[in-house]
Each structure stands twice: as structure tokens, then as C-alpha cells.
């Protein structure tokens, strides 16, 4: 943010106001009057140069005030009786900003201060306070009066030093001041002891500190050595150094270290870096292992080796995590009879069996060898101490053979992320095992509990488990917590048993904290198993087959009933015919119409069917604009021309010909025209120009044998069938209109009506009427 002044639109009920990391340079007396209920005010990391505490006189409920990391040049005090946290650290003041008003803040618990000069008189004003934490954030330190810090009465003291500051006196006085002392940024180009001249300054009296924390330390090895020697003879019990860098030549080693007279119990070195790499290992390693304390941690130090004294030590806790230790560390005899916890996480260890020899001479209870390169390839059994109850072997290279090298009395075993496929049946019974982690392995089935009778917690997440064996459900009745998520479970029967296990009154939960998700069944993918109900049919294959057959029969009968009742085949056939006709019409080109086509359609029918033709067929095809040209036939003839010739001409001048088929039509001599049609393009070029409408069913035996082509067409069902159900007529007419929908070539002429008046006996009962409408 980039605020340059305090916002004016603050609500009166505001209790917490954070204006940190802005550009505030000045505070006005009226900035906080409207928020009288304010309890927390954070103004750190701004550009404030002058602070008048009286600005907050109306904020009686203020408990927390942070004005650190500003550019304060002066502070005008005003007593805030209720204030508990006040931070004025990291500022540019020459002296520590403490006055008489500060001494009236009786509820103060945390105080952050800063100043280039620190004197006893500054702290005497607050010597009567029982503070919880005092924080000295120093940007510069030009003068420190020895004995100033011990005046403070605080439980915790944290000092952040400027770069290249002689910390020696501050460390001395700090250890005399508080129970917990933390010093950050210790950086000296030369030894801090050159100004003292003798080792007598390594002796401290009236020490109070029991926990000493050093952070971000950059010293030579000898400087670090002398710090350990100083602390060794004080009241410090817990000594931790984080982010330490050291180098330089080694002049002091374990032989010159005084290990006597100490209360030290724990030393921790974390995140250690070396400026040079030719430091004698014996000088460094033995300095720590000969300290003979209870707890030692040297982690993230890129340490390739570790040496131990030849005599027994009283170490109970050793942590060498995040180093590069190899098997060579344990090839020599190491005497750690009191060791209970050993952490070797993230190193370069390779042989599990070698660790067995080392551990057998200890009282080890907890062993962490995770994130190494460990494996166990031989068939030899291992003899671990009977006291070992917790073992972490996760993220290694173990196969199934690891079960031959496990402690007999193990209670918690972590084998996460290895190469385990199965649990061998011939392994030793781990009768005390309560918690087992198989996550991220290659198990294809859940292990039974025949070897783990007391197993309570089992984790098999992210394996390759496809099914849940019956042996598991029968042998793992005592399991209370089971984590099996992210496995490709298949089948319903095993899942049903799995759910029953989750309903066991002894089980707290099924699947742990994560949802149990399998690849199949797909309908159960996602939800937690404890909320899934599976019917019996999902587990019985025979019942599933019977159910499927019954369902198929019922569906088949339902489809057959619908087909018969609603005549669905007829609808499908009509739709197919309409589609085929529509496609053929779209492909019709003007080249196909080059013959002298003058009519859309020629209609031929029996005189017996004339009523249907007059009242059904023609009205359905005519349009109001008269654009459809139709040729019809009735019982008249033109005396000037034969009926055969006239019919032939009409067919040739029509785009398509409709023949209304019925038993009466077949019984007439109309079929005798067929030899004449053979000379026309109607039969010669394509069947697409002829439309047969079956008005009434015609048995094939009714068609004379001398008309084979007509019989062949009837056998192929190449016709449109007139529906007896009036509800189907709409689709029938749509199909017929689609067949006739085409743009004819431009024609000219006059409309005429031709009739045939002379009838031969051959054509009696059937007539032709040619009607041309709307011709130009």
C-alpha cells in the first residue's frame, strides 16, 4: 500500500488497525480520536520521524502498539496505563527512548527498544517491571555500558545485533539477564577475545540463562569453539545454533576443551555451512561427541562422517538428519549404551543389516532411517534390541525381504514409499505391532493380520490394491483406523465387506481423513466408503445375469408392443423413403430436365379409384399459386389421336408419373401399356421418374403372369403405401410432395384440355384425361 496519512473514514467500532508497510511520515492528534475502542495499532515499516504518544490519549483500551522499523528521531511520552505490548525497535534514536512515563505502564509485558547508545540509567526506569519479553532491535551500536542488560527483569531477551558488532559483552550480560536469551546476527572479522587478553573472561557468575539461542552466526572455528567453552560453564542447559557458517584455521580442538563442571543437556547445530573444507574431522566431530551430554543434534551440515570416543557416553538422543553420512560411520564399534532415539533421516546409508550390529549394543527405542538408500537383500535375520518400538524406514529401496530384518517387539513401523509388493507368509510374528504404514508401495492386495494380531492402525494409501481379500476382513478385526484411499479398487463384493468393517463398533473410522477413492465401480468414485450402501445384487453374479435377461425381455416386449400398436415400422419406412427422395431431388440437375418436360406429374389410375384421385390426391398436391402442373386421365379420348400415342406423349412431357395401384387397376388392360413405355425414358433411363402408390393391397397372384415387371416391382415393395389410418396421411403427402418438388424448365404455350372419346376394348375401364393448368 502507499498511504501517506491515516484514513479518515474509520468506523468507531474498529478494534484492530494495521497500517504497516505504508508511507506515513507524520501522525496528527485527531487521527485516532474517532476509534476510541481501538485495541491493536500496527504502524511498523513506515516513515514516521516523530511520535507523540499523546496522540493516543483517547484510546484508553489500546493494548498493542507497534511502531518498529520507522525513522523516529524523537518520542514524546504519554502514559498509556493499559498498554501491554510496545515496540519501538529499529529506529534512528541515539538513546533508548525510556522516561518516567514509561515506568507508569504497569501492565507492560513486551517491550521493543532501540538506540545507538545503551546505558544503565536507561533501564533503571523500568527495572521494577516484570516483563515477559524484551526485544532489542539495533541498527547501530556505538556504545554499550557493561552491566546495563542485567538491570532488566525479563523472562526472554532477544537481541538483534548490527553487522560486525563485538557481541562479547552483550553475550556476557545477556546470560546474566533472562532465562531465555536469543542473539541474532553474530558476525566478527576477528576473534572477539583479543580485547580481553586472557581466558578468565570465559568464567561467568550469576548466570540466569537456561536456554540460549544463536541465529545467523558467521565466525571462525576458534571463535565458535570459545563460545561453546563460555556457555559450557554457565547455567545454560539447552544451547541451539541455527544458520551457522564457520571456517578459518583450526587451532583449538577437543583436547583443549574443558568438559568439566557443566549442566548442559542439549546442543543443537542446524543449517551448518563451511567456508573451507580442510577442517580436521577429528577436531570437529570429537569436540561434540566427547561432550557426553544427553541430546546432540547436528543436522543439515553436509557432514560425511562422525567419530565417537572409544569409551561409553551417556547420549540418549542423537539427530544427524539431512547430512551425507554413509555406512562407514557404523563399521567401527560405537559404545552408546544409553541411546534411546537415533535420527538418521536423509543421508546416504545403504545397508540395513549393518545398522543392526550398531543398534544391538544400545537401548534404542526410536530409530528413524527414512529418506536413505537402504535395502536388505540377504536372507539373514536381524537381531535388534528388544527395546526398539518405533522404526521409520520410509522412502528407501526396501523390497519384501525387509520383513526378515525387523525388530520383534516393534510397535510403530513406517514403510512408506518403498518397493514392497507382498507381505511374506514366513515372516516373524510381530505380535506387538500397533501401527503399520504401507502407503506409496506396490501392494496388490491388503495384507492380512495373521502376523500382526494387535494391529490398530493400517495405512495402505496409494498402492495398486484391486480387491479386498476375505482374509483381511477375517484376521483384522482389531483394526480401528484404516487408510486405503487412492487405490484402484474393483468389484462390489469386496467393497461391501470393506464397508462392513467400517461399521464395526470397534472401528473409529474407515479411510482415515481422506476420501476413499477407487477407479471402479464408477458410480462409487469419489464419496467416502462409510456413506456408501451396496445392494446384494452388486455381489451376486448369477443374480446380475438373471436380472439383465429379465430386463432385456421386458424391454423387447415393450418395443414389440409399441411397434405393433403404433405401426412404427411404417413410419420408419416412410421416413427413409422421404429422405431418399429428398436427396434425389437435390441432386436433380437441369441436364436431367432437358427433355421437353411441361408437367410436374402424370397421374394414371383406375376408374374405380377416381373418387380417391379427385378428392384426396389432387387437392393434396395442388398449391394456391397454381405452380403445380398435373396431367390426369379419365374416361374420354381425342378422336384425332390414339390413346396409346397420347399417353406416351404425356408421360414424356411429365417430370414424373404416378400410377395408383389397386386390384381394379391390375385387372384392367392398363398394364398392356408397358411395352410402349419401354420406348420412353420412363423405364429406359431410371426408375426415379415413376411413383407407384399402392392404394389397396394387391396379392401377387392377382397380377397376370404376362406382366413380369409389375410383379417384380411389387415384390421389391418399390411403392408408396396409402395408409388406412388418417393420422398417417400427413407424412404420406409430405413424402409425395418432396418427390415432385422441382423447378421445371421455362415452357410456353397455352393451356389446353385433351380428352379421348374413342375407347378400344383393350382400354375399357381405364381412361386418360390430360389437364394442363396455369400455362403461359
TrEMBL record:
The keyword Hydrolase does not apply. It is a single-pass type I membrane protein. Keywords: Disulfide bond, Glycoprotein, Immunity, Inflammatory response, Innate immunity, Isopeptide bond, Leucine-rich repeat, Membrane, NAD, Receptor, Repeat, Signal, Transmembrane, Transmembrane helix, Ubl conjugation. This is Toll-like receptor 2. Residues 597-740 form the TIR domain. Cooperates with LY96 to mediate the innate immune response to bacterial lipoproteins and other microbial cell wall components. Cooperates with TLR1 or TLR6 to mediate the innate immune response to bacterial lipoproteins or lipopeptides. Acts via MYD88 and TRAF6, leading to NF-kappa-B activation, cytokine secretion and the inflammatory response. May also promote apoptosis in response to lipoproteins. Disulfide bonds join 382-405. The chain crosses the membrane at residues 543-564. It comes from the Eukaryota. The gene is TLR10. It is found in: Endomembrane system.
Amino acid at each position: 500500500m502507499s498511504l501517506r496519512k491515516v484514513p479518515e473514514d474509520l468506523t468507531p467500532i474498529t478494534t484492530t488497525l494495521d497500517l504497516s508497510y505504508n508511507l506515513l511520515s507524520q501522525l496528527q492528534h485527531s487521527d485516532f480520536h474517532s476509534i476510541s475502542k481501538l485495541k491493536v495499532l500496527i504502524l511498523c515499516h513506515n516513515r514516521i520521524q516523530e511520535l507523540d504518544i499523546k496522540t493516543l490519549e483517547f484510546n484508553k483500551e489500546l493494548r498493542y502498539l507497534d511502531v518498529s522499523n520507522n525513522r523516529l528521531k524523537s518520542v514524546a511520552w504519554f502514559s498509556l496505563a493499559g498498554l501491554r505490548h510496545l515496540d519501538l525497535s529499529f529506529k534512528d534514536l541515539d538513546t533508548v527512548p525510556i522516561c518516567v512515563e514509561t515506568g507508569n505502564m504497569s501492565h507492560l509485558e513486551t517491550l521493543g527498544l532501540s538506540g545507538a547508545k545503551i546505558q544503565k540509567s536507561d533501564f533503571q526506569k523500568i527495572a521494577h517491571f516484570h516483563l515477559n519479553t524484551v526485544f532489542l532491535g539495533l541498527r547501530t551500536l556505538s556504545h554499550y555500558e557493561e552491566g546495563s542488560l542485567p538491570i532488566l527483569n525479563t523472562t526472554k531477551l532477544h537481541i538483534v545485533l548490527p553487522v560486525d558488532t563485538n557481541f562479547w559483552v552483550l553475550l556476557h550480560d545477556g546470560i546474566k539477564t533472562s532465562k531465555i536469551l536469543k542473539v541474532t546476527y553474530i558476525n566478527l572479522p576477528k576473534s572477539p577475545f583479543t580485547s580481553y587478553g586472557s581466558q578468565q573472561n570465559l568464567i561467568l557468575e550469576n548466570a540466569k540463562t537456561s536456554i540460549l539461542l544463536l541465529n545467523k552466526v558467521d565466525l571462525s572455528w576458534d571463535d565458535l569453539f570459545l563460545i561453546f567453552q563460555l556457555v559450557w560453564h554457565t547455567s545454560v542447559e539447552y544451547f541451539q545454533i541455527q544458520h551457522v557458517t564457520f571456517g578459518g584455521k583450526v587451532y583449538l580442538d577437543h583436547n583443549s576443551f574443558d568438559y568439566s563442571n557443566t549442566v548442559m543437556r542439549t546442543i543443537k547445530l542446524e543449517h551448518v555451512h563451511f567456508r573451507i573444507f580442510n577442517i580436521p574431522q577429528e577436531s570437529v566431530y570429537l569436540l561434540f561427541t566427547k561432550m557426553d551430554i544427553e541430546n546432540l543434534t547436528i543436522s543439515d551440515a553436509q557432514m560425511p562422517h562422525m567419530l565417537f570416543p572409544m569409551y561409553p557416553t551417556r547420549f540418549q538422543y542423537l539427530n544427524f538428519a539431512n547430512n551425507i553420512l554413509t555406512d562407514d560411520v557404523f563399521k567401527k564399534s560405537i559404545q552408546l549404551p544409553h541411546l534411546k532415539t537415533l535420527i538418521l533421516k536423509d543421508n546416504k546409508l545403504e545397508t540395513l543389516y549393518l545398522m543392526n550390529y550398531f543398534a544391538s549394543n544400545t537401548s534404542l527405542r526410536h530409530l528413524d532411517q527414512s529418506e536413505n538408500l537402504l535395502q536388505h537383500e540377504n536372507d539373514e535375520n536381524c537381531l535388534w534390541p528388544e527395546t526398539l518400538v518405533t522404526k521409520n524406514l520410509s522412502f528407501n529401496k526396501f523390497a519384501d525381504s525387509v520383513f526378515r530384518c525387523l525388530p520383534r517387539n516393534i510397535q510403530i513401523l513406517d514403510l512408506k514409499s518403498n518397493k514392497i509388493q507382498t507381505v511374506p507368509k514366513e515372516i516373524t510374528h510381530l505380535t506387538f505391532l500397533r501401527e503399520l504404514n504401507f502407503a506409496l508401495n506396490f501392494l496388490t492386495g491388503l495384507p492380512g493380520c495373521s502376523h500382526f494380531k494387535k494391529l490398530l492402525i493400517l495405512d495402505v494409501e496409494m498402492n495398486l490394491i484391486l480387491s479386498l481379500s476375505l482374509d483381511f476382513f477375517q484376521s483384522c478385526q482389531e483394526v480401528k483406523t484404516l487408510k486405503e484411499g487412492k487405490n484402484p479398487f474393483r468389484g462390489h463384493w469386496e467393497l461391501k465387506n470393506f464397508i462392513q468393517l467400517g461399521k464395526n463398533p470397534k472401528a473409529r473410522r474407515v479411510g482415515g481423513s481422506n476420501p476413499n477413492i477407487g477407479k471402479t465401480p464408477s458410480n462409487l468414485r469419489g464419496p467416502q466408503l462409510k456413506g456408501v450402501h451396496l445392494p446384494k445384487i452388486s455381489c451376486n453374479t448369477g443374480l446380475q445375469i438373471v436380472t439383465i435377461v429379465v430386463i432385456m425381455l421386458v424391454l423387447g416386449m415393450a418395443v414389440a408392443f409399441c411397434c405393433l400398436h403404433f405401426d412404427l415400422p411404417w413410419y420408419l419406412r416412410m421416413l427413409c423413403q422421404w429422405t431418399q427422395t429428398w436427396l434425389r431431388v437435390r441432386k436433380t440437375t437441369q441436364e436431367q430436365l432437358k427433355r421437353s418436360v411441361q408437367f410436374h406429374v402424370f397421374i394414371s389410375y383406375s376408374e374405380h379409384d377416381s373418387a380417391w384421385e379427385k378428392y384426396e390426391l389432387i387437392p393434396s398436391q395442388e398449391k394456391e399459386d397454381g405452380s403445380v402442373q398435373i396431367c390426369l386421365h379419365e374416361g374420354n379420348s381425342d378422336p384425332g389421336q390414339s390413346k396409346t400415342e397420347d399417353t406416351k406423349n404425356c408421360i414424356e412431357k411429365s417430370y414424373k408419373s404416378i400410377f395408383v395401384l389397386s386390384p381394379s387397376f391390375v385387372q384392367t388392360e392398363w398394364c398392356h401399356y408397358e411395352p410402349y413405355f419401354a420406348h420412353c425414358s420412363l423405364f429406359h433411363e431410371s426408375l426415379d421418374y415413376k411413383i407407384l402408390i399402392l392404394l389397396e393391397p394387391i396379392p401377387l397372384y392377382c397380377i397376370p403372369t404376362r406382366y413380369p415387371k409389375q410383379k417384380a416391382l411389387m415384390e421389391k415393395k418399390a411403392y408408396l403405401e396409402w395408409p388406412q389410418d388418417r393420422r398417417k396421411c400427413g407424412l404420406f403427402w409430405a413424402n409425395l410432395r418432396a418427390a415432385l418438388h422441382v423447378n421445371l424448365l421455362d415452357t410456353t404455350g397455352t393451356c389446353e384440355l385433351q380428352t379421348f372419346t374413342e375407347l378400344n376394348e383393350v382400354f375399357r375401364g381405364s381412361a386418360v384425361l390430360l389437364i394442363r393448368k396455369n400455362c403461359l
